[in-house]
Predict the 3D structure of the following.
Amino acid sequence: MLHCNMSYVAVQHGQERMKQPRANRAETAKAASKATKVSPSVIKVRSTPAKPRPILTISSRNYSSWSLRGWLLCKLAGLDVEEQVLSLDDPANRAELLLLAPSMLVPRLTHDGASVWDTHAIAEYLAELYPEAGMLPKNRLARAHCRSVSGEIHSGFYNLRSALPMNLKMRHKNFKIFAGAQPDINRVQTIWEECIERWGGPFLFGKKPTIADAMYAPVCTRFITYNVPMTDTAKAYCRTIMSWPPMAQWVEAAKKEPEEIEELDVEF
Ligand SMILES: N[C@@H](CCC(=O)N[C@@H](CS)C(=O)NCC(=O)O)C(=O)O
């Protein structure tokens, strides 16, 4: 039997080599180092300890904008996660979430012994771990810009968030936008215009999506849900985001989600 905590196991003639006493093993190693050819009957099998699959805890796909951000970030990193979907309406799930994430909020990532909650922390954690994934732009100035606009959406736009909650399944044709949310709507579109003009689009920092696109993706869905008037550049950016394959995949799954929050589904 092969053990998963052995990094190399020599197999001879289909059978695991018997454990040798220390002295014998030293002799075997000496003999092996003298040998010019490796016997074809000795096959080295690489075996590493099995790591548990990373877990991303999320809630509703239809309503939870932060879950969407966390999930897109994992896609950007190329991290294959097992999804743990918790309905936050269930008090038992809330108790479980408290154990998982002290903030009692989703998303929350469990990866290789690390527990990461808060979308911004997940973004930085994954970008540091997988630099080759290009979650942050290569150019220093673009990187500074990307971090700034990502920070801005993470820490602000409260009026936009509360006036236009994410609801992927819903479409409001004649939605009356709360006046307090209009400055946020304008600011978001200015951010998109500046990024696309400076870095060439179609994503905010060029040809490939970055952390900033994951952070603004739920805003695109809100603008579409509530039929928010947009500039041509903003409309084109929303089309780019909605046809980005991971985004399309999330929206498809959200449509199949049974859970509904009545207050958010009324026509208003
Ligand atoms: N700052 C947090 C915000 C996370 C957040 O507000 N998550 C919402 C879901 S979209 C949540 O878990 N709310 C708890 C609830 O619905 O009771 C982050 O960046 O992850």
Remarks:
- The chain has two domains: 8-46, 55-265.
- The pocket of glutathione is lined by residues 59, 64-67, 88, 105-107, 118-120, 154 (CB under 6 Å).
